[in-house]
Amino acid sequence: MINVTINGDALKFESTLSLDELLMKLDIEQDKVAIEHNREIVPKSTFHRVQVADGDNLEIVHFIGGG
Amino acid sequence: MTDNLIIAGKEYSSRLIVGTGKYKDFEETKRAVEASGAEIVTVAVRRVNISKPGQPMLVDYLDPKKYTYLPNTAGCFTGDDAVRTLRLAREAGGWDLVKLEVLGDQKTLYPNMPETVDAAKILIKEGFQVMVYCNDDPIQAKILEDIGCCAIMPLGAPIGSGLGIQNPVGIRIIVENANVPVLVDAGVGTASEAAQAMELGCDAVLMNTAIAEAKDPVRMARAMNYAVKAGRDAYLSGRMPKKLYADPSSPLAGLI
């Protein structure tokens, strides 16, 4: 079991997983978001390679209406 | 005769840029943006709601292939936060054109200019094309242009206030001194004020609340579309001089 903080919320996953696996689990389309992994921006092209480990901190953002 | 707006080397036929916040729903956002004729829309960068996946997203209503998305840094009170937000925006969308705004305080939402300048320098070094929200001070505007911002965007009045252009002299001096596009960003409340910004020689106007908080946003979006075009034409026409006394329009010769 690993603990991961995503957008400020604590979540648990069965084991380490890649970012694209994580997005699939969360039902988020990867071409509509950007991810910060422990404050480092992750290029979309590497989502399948970057592993999420216990204690990691993620920010997943997208575009919303704004002025 | 084409009279296109050119920002960071790209041409746009509309001189109105609209925000996408404060609308009732995405459907209304879409209809208002269409009525405005805008080709550039500002957007905010926020956390995805991970507890409610599959919610409709802005990109489902405003196609980023059709509209130029201009990510903003609204809500950022430090240069660091603004830079972080725009780095994420670039990764999310893949575009370098961004709107930088670093706010100074909650009540006025006036820009914090030292933080704005520092953030702009970092972003420009990283290859961003920075359109910058700033105060109506010609000296600050020049500093921002000199460090490489691709558009200078002084406020007409506080964000969301709808007070109209409070310092037309400052805006005019900024326009006269600038070699990059100048846009009034924030403060416009109704169509005549958008026209006024254009008559002052601004290259474009950026607004959100004036449209979104009108009773009929779609109709106001259309009004702004006309106003910006009217103001631009009036500016390019060169207005008549003001006179103290009357000057009859009908010839005096041949009076009975």
Describe it for me?
The complex is a heterodimer of chains A (67) and B (256). With 67 residues, chain A is mostly beta strands. Chain A has a single domain, classed as Beta-grasp domain (Ubiquitin-like (UB roll)). Helices cover 12% and strands 45% of the residues of chain A. Chain A has a five-stranded mixed beta sheet, with no helix packed on it. In chain A, strands 3-6 form a two-stranded antiparallel sheet. In chain A, a hairpin with a 2-residue loop joins strand 4 and strand 5. Chain B has 256 residues and is α/β, with parallel strands linked by helices. Helix content of chain B is 36%, strand content 17%. Chain B contains eight helices and ten strands. Chain B has a five-stranded parallel beta sheet. In chain B, strands 6-7-8 form a three-stranded parallel beta sheet. A two-stranded antiparallel sheet of chain B has the order 1-2. In chain B, helix 1 (26-36) packs parallel to helix 8 and helix 6 runs parallel beside helix 8. Chain B is globular, with a radius of gyration of 19 Å. The mean pLDDT of chain B is 95. The chains are: A mainly beta (67), B alpha/beta (256). The A-B interface holds A 6-9, 11, 26-28, 32-36, 41-44, 59-67 and B 19-23, 26, 29, 42-48, 50-51, 53-54, 57-59, 69, 71-72, 74, 84, 87-93, 159-160, 186, 207-209. Strand 7 of chain A pairs antiparallel with strand 4 of chain B.
